[in-house]
Amino acid sequence: MSKQELPVLGQDGAEDCCPRLLATPLDEARAFELARVFKALGDPVRLRLLSMIASRAGGEVCVCDLTPAFDLSQPTISHHLKLLKQAGLIASERRGTWVYYRLLPHTTDRLAALLTRPAGESPPTTTPAGEPLPAAPAGERPPATAPTGAAS
Predict the structure, then answer these.
(1) Residue 1: what pLDDT?
(2) List of the chain residues with pLDDT < 70
(3) What string of H, E and C letters represents the secondary structure of 137-152?
(4) CB 91: neighbour CB atoms within 10 A?
(5) Is the pTM of this model over 0.90?
(6) Per-residue pLDDT reduced to its tens digit, 116-131
(7) Do residues 50 and 85 lie in contact, with contact meaning Cβ atoms separated by under 8 Å?
(8) What is the largest CA-CA distance in the chain?
(9) So what's the pLDDT on residue 147?
(10) Which of 87, 101, 107 is CA-nearest to residue 1?
(11) Closest by alpha carbon to 40, among 74, 73, 8, 16?
């Protein structure tokens, strides 16, 4: 795995200039940048860590509370947390011997906005060849639609 720093979304000064993925094709540079963030989210352990941090009451969690939830060594958990931090998804603060982590909602909000269908646009019901789209697998919910008048 590369030790190269991952770009932090939202720190390029172009907050609302970037088009949504479902509305406009991405250029090569933006696709490369986003792929690195999605790669950080592409591991089940990192996804669980992000969820545990984001859902924690008070908005932050000590690494000492994260490690016991996994059958992995503390250095492995620290490595996963480092990758999430490099991707700009979480931040950390050392307090004595412990490190506390918190979600950076700005980054997750930008990812959510990127993947959100433009307001008023209905989801496709057929493939480009005109065939009906397959139904969602059993147990999966259909995509949620935004309430009328909801802010994006």
Answers:
(1) 46
(2) 1-23, 120-125, 135-152
(3) CCCCCCCCCCCCCCCC
(4) 15
(5) no
(6) 877 766 666 677 777 7
(7) no
(8) 61
(9) 45
(10) 87
(11) 8
Kindly write down the DSSP assignment for every residue of the chain, as one continuous string.
Answer: ---PPPPPTT-SS-TTTSPPTTTSPPPHHHHHHHHHHHHHHSSHHHHHHHHHHHTSTTSEEEHHHHGGGSSS-HHHHHHHHHHHHHTTSEEEEEETTEEEEEE-HHHHHHHHHHHSPPTTPPPP-B-TTSPBPPPPPTTPPPPP-PPTT---
Instruction: Determine how β-strand 60-62 pairs with β-strand 90-95.
Output: unpaired
Show the tokens assigned to 70.
């996994």
Structure tokens at 16: 């609302």
Give the Cβ contact number of residue 97 at 10 Å.
6
Give the pair of three-digit tokens for residue 68: 């016991």
Half-sphere exposure of 146 (CA within 13 A, CB side): 15
Nearest to 113 by CA among 40, 12, 4, 24: 24
pLDDT of residue 120: 66
